[in-house]
């Protein structure tokens, strides 16, 4: 990856970040994926006392169904327990395949358990903070939510955090696809709208032209 592409991708990275300040909550909701560092982040937050309940949500999505056979949430929960989170403080939702289902199916699971957390800390990959937030706000608007992620710079994430089966170019393509969804999905009823600055969208268009288009929504 040359420096020009790197800088364009980093612009998207910063836009996807929300930089929310952590607040104590009723539940930590970890949105699972290929990135097991997200599981570690959720477990650490629980162990630090930010919330008394830790929920893992994720079956096998577009990316992980070609990598794994065990649902994401089961793998993430096992990581949390290995780090010291008691099993009785963990809930697992392992049927969802996208962000909207993560929230919807978690809502159903909590209702079945007669649990009604009012405040959530959502944990996700760094470049999916914004998309997770706008999806949660659309699907479950009456709840208060803040979003966090593994604490890493763009370069640290590409070199240390991301799954070894996904090279940096693949991660950039995923970021590009997520930005497209932030623009498209409000009209489909999947997310609340977000303003996208002109320079961020211009970076997106240049990256698409450069071939980082593998995760775009195709009409």
TrEMBL record:
Pfam families the record matches: DUF218
DUF218 domain location: 26-148
Signal peptide start-end: none
InterPro entries given in the database record: Cell_Envelope_Assoc, DUF218, Rossmann-like_a/b/a_fold
PANTHER family assigned to the protein according to its UniProt record, in alphabetical order: DUF218 DOMAIN-CONTAINING PROTEIN, INNER MEMBRANE PROTEIN, PROBABLE PERMEASE
Protein name, per record: YdcF family protein
């Amino acid at each position: 990856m040359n420096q020009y592409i790197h800088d364009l991708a980093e612009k998207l990275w910063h836009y996807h970040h929300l930089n929310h300040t952590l607040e104590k909550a009723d539940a930590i909701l970890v949105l699972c994926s290929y990135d097991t560092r997200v599981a570690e982040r959720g477990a650490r937050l629980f162990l630090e006392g930010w919330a008394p309940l830790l929920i893992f949500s994720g079956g096998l999505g577009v990316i992980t169904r070609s990598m794994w056979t065990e649902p994401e949430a089961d793998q993430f929960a096992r990581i949390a327990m290995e780090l010291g989170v008691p099993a009785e403080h963990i809930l697992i939702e392992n049927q969802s395949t996208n962000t909207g289902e993560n929230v919807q199916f978690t809502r159903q699971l909590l209702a079945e358990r007669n649990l009604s957390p009012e405040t959530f800390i959502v944990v996700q990959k760094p470049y999916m903070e914004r998309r997770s937030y706008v999806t949660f706000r659309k699907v479950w608007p009456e709840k208060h939510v803040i979003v966090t992620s593994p604490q890493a710079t763009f370069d640290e994430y590409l070199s240390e955090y991301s799954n070894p089966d996904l090279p940096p170019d693949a991660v950039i393509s995923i970021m590009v696809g997520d930005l497209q969804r932030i623009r498209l999905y409000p009209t489909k009823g999947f997310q609340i709208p977000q303003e996208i600055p002109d320079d961020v969208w211009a970076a997106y268009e240049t990256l698409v032209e450069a071939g980082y288009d593998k995760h775009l929504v195709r009409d």
